[in-house]
Structures are given as structure tokens and as C-alpha cells.
Design goal:
By secondary structure, the chain is an alpha/beta fold. It has 2 domains: about 45-520, ANL, N-terminal domain (Rossmann fold); about 540-665, GMP Synthetase, Chain A, domain 3. The protein is about 30% helix and about 20% strand. Strand 30, helix 18 and strand 31 (about 615) form a beta-alpha-beta unit. The protein is globular, with a radius of gyration of 24 Å. Bound molecules: adenosine-5'-triphosphate and magnesium ion (MG). Adenosine-5'-triphosphate binds next to strand 20, strand 25 and strand 26.
């Protein structure tokens, strides 16, 4: 273990020094928590308690961290696996846990969200403000006929109203179904139709990097004829809207008018712990998105406990910012529920990372003195491509802890994040989890766990991951299929209206008590977990199983490369051969010289077997809206098949460009 204690070079002319420093550190396997970092929340007692009796540990955490209207006496009910329940006879209200209890404790004037609009607008929303807005909206929804158990769709940009909308649903027991604001209204239609949404909360128009587009008008066209949809609530979004907003009398209502007419007080009703809280679709990286159902108490416990424990969060002093969108699980758990339940002050940012310029994130960190920053590896790689001169413009010394989520982080991106953004001072928590898991399951704990770039390290207290081989035998060191062997409170309860797909997807391979994650992983001698890719993405060359994550990270470690995705192509000789899709950084163009260098580079780092058979130069890679590479589509292209489900693709043009390139031959 080493702590190189290197601090970031902030001189943009020193790009070559930075490259050399990164290159030098790539061989360092493990980093101790930075020497100057002092952890505030001890975790040894949690670890001991969870190891001794996981259910007792979760029960104690649920009593300590959540406020109950009716205390529970049952903890886990596992008599009907895989349909588990937690704390089932207890009652609570989630919005009361996120709002009322802080206001009642005298913290109403604390800022919940420092909202920052993309044109530079600022708005501070306190806990008292958010409680007031939530109560009025809850009453407004009741006046529109929404009742506990009804589904409310939410299709909004990153504005404080999105949090109020989610909390208002939770307050009255309505089930929210948030759809990422960047999706096309057709994706919204499908999700509203499947869930029989009664009300949709949306916005008049959207803006993105200075461009405006009407939203409500498009929603009308796509969703106007849905029989279950009784009302559409329309928020006046920030900024001027160019387009006319069509409003249908009797059906459509302005958000502000609904609030103005509503009673200001809406008591939080006590709801059963297992009351459904939300439906949220997974990202669609591996298949058609799945409608995941989470319930109230277990989910909130997971979000609350993991945020404070993983990030060592102190609500009194920290300013926290998660750059995700609220339309993903990360936004649900770590922009809305986890931060509010803990009573922390967060930043909420409406815009894109490169508007008005490529330094906007770092400007925001400097302005709000952000202490904890949580983002995705794909975003970090993009920032690397833009260059260290952008963060260098700003004072990032307030940062204390950095996090990532979404995919394995390649060591080079980890090191850049560590040095350039964290100044070598900040522990990095590489948090592994899924829409299904509700909250983080495997992650370093800031300042406690020695980190190895690329590994999510060890399970959190109370979580029991394991690796199995194809026949279900435990793997203690080496690679295998990642499973979770014990239920945990924030796990999904089912797929919405599809118990059959729920059982088939997660619990058919090794029985109803073993949750099959869908990822393949490696366990090293220190008991660290390395996510090596999706089960279906693992590549088998001449009988050797190669990890997509490992091959990609070797390619990305080459200085000419910005991003890479590898997939398998059927091959007569070797069973499968590797095809690499590579985006270059800087000045280099994809020619046979770079190709030879890359193949040699991979051979040196991993071995000759891992050398790509074919390299396709790509201007961009197909990604989901949450920034994950869709390897399944690349596989389809590499093997000349028709493309699978593309509804969650960010930019469909990327795929047609690649398909044309591949068809044109090497
Ligand atoms: P779908 O399930 O629809 O195919 P998805 O799996 O991408 O989409 P999410 O629930 O958003 O949908 O993503 C969870 C997956 O993201 C995990 O199964 C894992 O593959 C990957 N992932 C998330 N965090 C990490 C991490 N820290 N390290 C490695 N992989 C991660
Ligand atoms: Mg998944």
C-alpha cells in the first residue's frame, strides 16, 4: 500500500507532466486513505453488528435513522422467497422523514438545494420551503383525485419542483414513475401506459445548452389519448418559453395555479413500510429496460444509511453534489431521498457540463464550496478529453470526498480524478450498485478502506455478495457470477406487474434465495470485488475468459485514446475474437500505426490473447442516456445482426455511423 501524496499539477502547460505522473502511478495497485483525511463516522461497530446478525443490524439502523409512526416488530419476512418484506408491520411517511422531522428539529432554514440553472440562475430552497411546496402539491394532487396506490408520472428537468413532485407523491402514498427529462415523449408514453398513470407532472418547455424545445405540446401529441391519464400538471420551467403551451380545459392545470389554490397543510399519512414508493426503469444497457418497483421503509433505510456511511457525510458541514439526473436511480437515492433524509445541503444543477463552458462543474464546486462530489466514470473520461486546464481555473480545495457510479472506473480515469480534481487529498469511493439494489452495496468507505483503482472493494455492512461458478459452486478467488446471498432492505420487490420476469431475471438460475446480479466479477486475495462486465459481455478467447472492463481499461491507458468499448465476435479459430471500438483523444488519427501501437500496448498489459482482432475508429460510442456504453448494440453491429432495443440510446446517429464503418470492412 502506498500514499504517493502527489498533488495535482495545476499548470495547463504541464500536460506532459500530468501524463507522465499518471503513467507512473498506473502500476500502483493500492492507495491508502489520504494521510490528512480524518474519518468522522466510525464504522467498526456496524461491521461487527452486521457480521454477528445482519437482521438485528438492519433493525437497529431502521430504528435509529428513520422516524416511525408505528414501530415495527417484524424485521425480515423470508417465508415466500424471492418475495421478501422488511419491517412490514411498521408505519411511516417518507416525506415526513425527509422534511418534517428536520423542520420540527429547528433546521427549517437549512438549504436543501442550492439550485443552479443553466443560464447561471441561483435559487436556494430551504427545508421549510420544500415542505411548504410539497404539502401544497400533495393537496393539489388529492384535489385531482389521486389516491394512495395511484401512479403519477413525472417528466421534468433538473429543477427543485422535481423533488417536490416526488415527495408530494410519497406524502399521500401515490407511486411515482419518473422518466428522464431528456427522453423523447414516446418513451414517456410507453411508461405511463404500462403503469396506468393517472396524472403526469411535466413542464412547458425544456432548454439545453441555450436551445429550447416545447415539451407540453409534444406530450399532448404522444400521450393525449391515454385512457387512464386524467390530468397533466404543467410546471412553468425556468427562463422564457418561446412556444405556445396548449392547455386542455378540465384536463390540464398549471402547477403554480394548482399550488395557489391548495390548502397549505397536508398532514403526512402513516403508510405501511411495504407501501409501493416508486417504479423506475433500469438503464437498458443489456436488454429492454425493466420496470423496477421499490417500497417505502427498506428503500429509505438503504439510501439514508449508505449515503452517510460511504461518503462519511456530516449534514452540519458538508455541501454535497451528485451530478446525475433525477431520472436515474442515482438521482432518486442520492439526489433526493438519501440527502434529504439525512438533512444535508445539496447542489442541484440543471445544465450540461460543457455549457456555457467546459469548466462549469468546477465553477459550481468553487462557488458553493462543495465538499462531496459524486459523478460517473464516463463523465470523468469526458473531462479528461477536455483537459486539466478547465478544473485548473477553479479553487477545488473545499472537496473532501469523491465518488463514482455506473460502470467500472478505468485506473487512468481514477488517477486523474484523484490528482486533478481531488488534489490527492480526497478518498474516492467507487460505488457499485444497480437500479434493483436501491442503494450502494459494494464500495469503499471514505477514509477507511484502502482503494485499488478499478475495484469497488468490499461489501457494506449487512450485505453479502459472493461469486459462483457456472454450476453454482462458490468461487473464493478468481472470476465468477456475482450474486447476493441474503436479502437486504432496499432491494427491489418485483418488476412492475411482472412477477414472472422478476423471478426469471434474478432468481431462476440459483434458486429464489440467491439474487443474480447480472454482472461478472473477480475476487482477489484481499477479498476485493472487481466488476469485470456484464455476464453476457464476458469474452472467451481460446477458452480464456477476458473481462471487458480490463481490456477496455488497458486500451484507454494509451495516451492517444479517450474511450473504448470491446465486444466479442464469433470466430472459427478462437471461439470468440475481440473487436474494439475506440475514440481517440487529441491530434492522433486512427491509422495502422496507432492500431499496431494499441495492439502491442494491450499485449504488454494483459497478454497477447487480449489483443483486439479488429479496431474500429469511432467518433463516439453508443451510450444510454445515463452514459453507459451499450455493448449489446456493438455486438449486434460486429456480428451483422439487426439492432436490439434502442429506446434508451442517447444519440441514435452514433449507431448508424458505426454500422456503416463496420460494414465497409477493415
Ligand atoms: P439494464 O439492467 O436495463 O440492462 P443497467 O444494468 O445499465 O441497465 P442500471 O441499474 O442503471 O442499469 O446499472 C446497474 C449496472 O451498472 C450494474 O449492474 C453494473 O454493471 C454497472 N455499475 C454500476 N456501478 C458500478 C461500479 N461502481 N462499478 C462497476 N459497475 C457498475
Ligand atoms: Mg441491469
Amino acid at each position: 500500500m502506498t500514499d504517493p501524496g502527489v498533488s495535482a499539477t495545476t499548470d495547463p502547460s504541464a500536460t506532459n507532466d500530468l501524463e507522465a505522473t499518471l503513467e507512473g502511478l498506473l502500476s500502483v495497485e493500492s492507495f491508502d486513505p489520504p494521510a490528512g483525511f480524518t474519518r468522522r463516522r466510525p464504522v467498526d461497530a456496524d461491521r461487527a453488528a452486521a457480521a454477528a446478525d445482519p437482521q438485528a443490524f438492519w433493525a437497529a439502523a431502521a430504528r435509529e435513522l428513520l422516524t416511525w409512526d408505528k414501530p415495527f416488530t417484524q424485521v425480515l419476512d423470508d417465508t415466500n422467497p424471492p418475495f421478501y418484506t422488511w419491517f412490514a408491520d411498521g408505519e411511516l411517511n417518507l416525506s415526513a422523514n425527509c422534511l418534517d422531522r428536520h423542520v420540527e428539529a429547528g433546521r427549517g432554514e437549512r438549504v436543501a438545494f442550492h439550485w443552479r440553472g443553466e443560464e447561471g440562475e441561483h435559487r436556494d430552497v430551504t427545508y421549510a420551503d420544500l415542505l411548504a411546496e410539497t404539502q401544497r402539491l400533495a393537496n393539489g394532487l388529492l384535489s385531482l383525485g389521486v389516491r394512495a396506490g395511484d401512479v403519477v408520472g413525472i417528466f421534468l428537468p433538473m429543477i427543485p419542483e422535481v423533488a417536490a413532485a416526488m415527495l408530494a407523491c410519497a406524502r399521500i402514498g401515490a407511486v411515482h414513475n419518473v422518466v428522464f427529462g431528456g427522453f423523447a415523449p414516446s418513451a414517456v408514453r410507453e411508461r405511463m401506459e404500462v403503469s396506468d398513470a393517472k396524472v403526469l407532472i411535466t413542464v412547458d418547455g425544456a432548454r439545453r445548452k441555450g436551445r429550447r424545445s416545447p415539451v407540453k405540446a409534444a406530450v399532448d401529441v404522444e400521450l393525449g389519448d391515454l385512457p387512464a391519464l386524467e390530468h397533466i400538471v404543467v410546471v412553468r420551467g425556468p427562463g422564457e418559453n418561446a412556444a405556445e403551451v396548449p392547455m386542455t380545459a378540465g384536463r390540464d392545470v398549471w402547477y403554480d395555479e394548482l399550488l395557489a389554490a391548495a390548502d397549505p397543510v397536508c398532514p403526512a399519512v402513516a403508510l405501511p413500510a411495504e407501501h409501493p414508493l416508486f417504479i423506475l426503469y433500469s438503464s437498458g444497457s443489456t436488454a429492454k429496460p425493466k420496470g423496477i418497483l421499490h417500497t417505502t421503509a427498506g428503500y429509505l433505510l438503504g439510501a439514508t444509511y449508505t449515503l452517510r456511511t460511504v461518503f462519511d457525510l456530516d449534514p452540519e458541514t458538508d455541501v454535497y453534489w451528485c451530478s446525475a439526473d433525477v431520472g436515474w436511480i442515482t438521482g432518486h437515492s442520492y439526489i433526493v431521498y438519501g440527502p434529504l433524509s439525512n438533512g444535508v445541503t445539496s447542489v442541484m444543477f440543471e445544465g450540461a457540463p460543457d455549457y456555457p463552458d467546459h469548466d462549469i462543474w468546477w465553477r459550481i464546486i468553487e462557488e458553493y464550496r462543495v465538499t462531496v462530489f459524486y459523478t460517473a466514470p464516463t463523465a470523468i473520461r469526458t473531462c479528461i478529453k477536455w483537459g486539466a486546464q478547465y478544473p485548473a481555473r477553479h479553487d477545488l480545495s473545499s472537496l473532501r470526498v469523491l465518488g463514482t457510479v455506473g460502470e467500472p472506473i478505468n485506473p487512468k480515469a481514477w488517477l486523474w480524478y484523484h490528482l486533478v480534481i481531488g488534489g490527492g487529498r480526497c478518498p474516492i469511493v467507487d460505488t457499485w450498485w444497480q437500479t434493483e439494489t436501491g442503494s450502494v452495496l459494494i464500495s469503499p468507505l471514505a477514509g477507511v478502506t484502502p482503494t485499488k483503482p478499478g475495484s469497488a472493494t468490499r461489501p457494506l455492512p449487512g450485505i453479502s455478495p459472493a461469486l459462483l461458478d457456472e454450476d453454482g459452486r462458490p468461487v473464493t478467488e478468481g472470476t465468477g457470477i456475482l450474486v447476493i446471498t441474503q436479502p437486504w432492505p432496499s432491494m427491489l420487490r418485483t418488476l412492475y406487474k411482472d412477477d414472472k420476469r422478476f423471478v426469471e431475471t434474478y432468481f431462476s438460475r440459483f434458486g429464489p434465495r440467491t439474487y443474480v446480479v447480472g454482472d461478472a466479477a473477480r475476487l482477489d486475495a484481499d477479498g476485493y470485488f472487481w466488476i469485470i462486465g456484464r455476464i453476457d459481455d464476458v469474452i472467451n478467447v481460446s477458452g480464456h475468459r477476458l473481462s471487458t472492463a480490463e481490456v477496455e481499461s488497458a486500451i484507454v491507458a494509451h495516451e492517444a485514446v479517450a474511450e473504448a468499448a470491446v465486444v466479442a465476435q464469433a470466430d472459427e479459430q478462437t471461439g470468440q475474437a475481440i473487436v474494439a471500438f475506440v475514440t481517440l483523444a487529441g491530434e492522433r488519427v486512427g491509422d495502422s500505426a496507432v492500431e499496431a501501437e494499441l495492439r502491442e500496448h494491450v499485449a504488454r498489459r494483459i497478454g497477447k490473447l487480449a489483443r483486439p482482432r479488429r479496431i474500429v475508429w469511432a467518433d463516439d460510442l453508443p451510450k444510454t442516456r445515463s452514459g453507459k456504453i451499450m455493448r449489446r448494440l456493438l455486438r449486434d453491429v460486429a456480428e451483422g445482426r439487426e439492432l436490439g432495443d434502442v429506446t434508451t440510446l442517447r444519440d441514435p446517429a452514433v449507431m448508424s455511423a458505426l454500422a456503416a464503418k463496420v460494414a465497409a470492412g477493415p
